Amino acid sequence: MSRRIQVGTDRQDRRVRVLSHVGRLSGIHRQAVVEVLEHDEHGYVAASGFGKRADWYRNVVKTPEATIQVGNRTLEVTAVPIPADAGAEIMARYAPRHPAAARRLCKIMGFEVDGSVSDYREVGRRIPFVRFTPRR
After folding, report:
1. How far apart are CA 76 and CA 95, in angstroms?
2. Please, are residues 21 and 66 in contact by the beta-carbon 8 Å criterion?
3. Can you give the pLDDT at residue 71?
4. Percent of the chain topping pLDDT 70
5. Burial class (CB in 10 A: 0-12, 13-18, 19+), 119
6. What is the mean pLDDT of residues 117-134?
7. Are 73 and 11 spatial neighbours (Cβ–Cβ below 8 Å)?
8. CA 124/CA 84 separation, integer angstroms
9. Is residue 29 helix, strand or coil?
10. Helices (H), the chain
11. Separation of alpha carbons 33 and 17, rounded Å
12. Taking a C-beta distance cutoff of 8 angstroms, is the pair 33, 18 a contact?
C-alpha cells in the first residue's frame, strides 16, 4: 500500500518537506517529514532533531539517493552529511531568523540555550545536518 504525505506548497510552508528514502535494514521505501533550515542553489539543509539515532538520518547516510517533495514537485536528491563546523554556522544563521523553532529544536535535542548566537553555534556543532543536493 502506498501512502502520500501532503505538506503545504512551496509558498505555504517553506520549512517543511517530505523526504522519501530507503530503509537501511528493510530496503523498503520510507517517508519522513523534515524541517529545512535553509536552501539555496546547492540544495536543502535539514537538521536531525533526534540526532544521529533518527531512522531517516541513518537511512540516508547508508543510501543517500532520496527525493524531497517541494510543493507539487518531487526532486531527486543526494544526501550529504554536513561537517560539525559548517553545522555550527548554519544554526547560527537559522536561530535569529526563527528563534521559536530554534529553541524548540534545541529542547528536543536536550540542549538549554541562552539565546545568543554563540550558544546556538555551539549547539549546531552537535546536531547532525544533511544537505540534500538535487541530482541533475
Report:
1. 28
2. yes
3. 83
4. 90
5. middle
6. 95
7. no
8. 7
9. strand
10. 55-62, 84-97, 99-109, 117-124
11. 6
12. yes
Identify the bridge partners of residue 67 per DSSP, sorted by sequence position: 20, 76
Within 10 A of 34 (CB to CB), how many other CB atoms are there?
24
pTM above 0.90, yes or no: no
Q: At 14, is the pLDDT very low, low, confident or very high (cuts 50, 70, 90)?
A: low
Q: Encode pLDDT of 43-97 as tens digits.
A: 999 999 888 999 999 999 999 999 999 888 999 999 999 999 999 999 999 999 9
Round to whole Å and give the CA distance between 99 and 85.
20
DSSP secondary-structure letter at 127? S
**Cα 24–Cα 25–Cα 30 angle in degrees, nearest 5:** 60
Return the C-alpha cell found at 41: 542553489
Residue with cell 530554534: 102
Q: Closest by alpha carbon to 116, among 94, 90, 95?
A: 95
Joined grid coordinates for residue 129: 545536518
Q: 3-class SS at 35? A: strand
pLDDT at 2 over 80: no
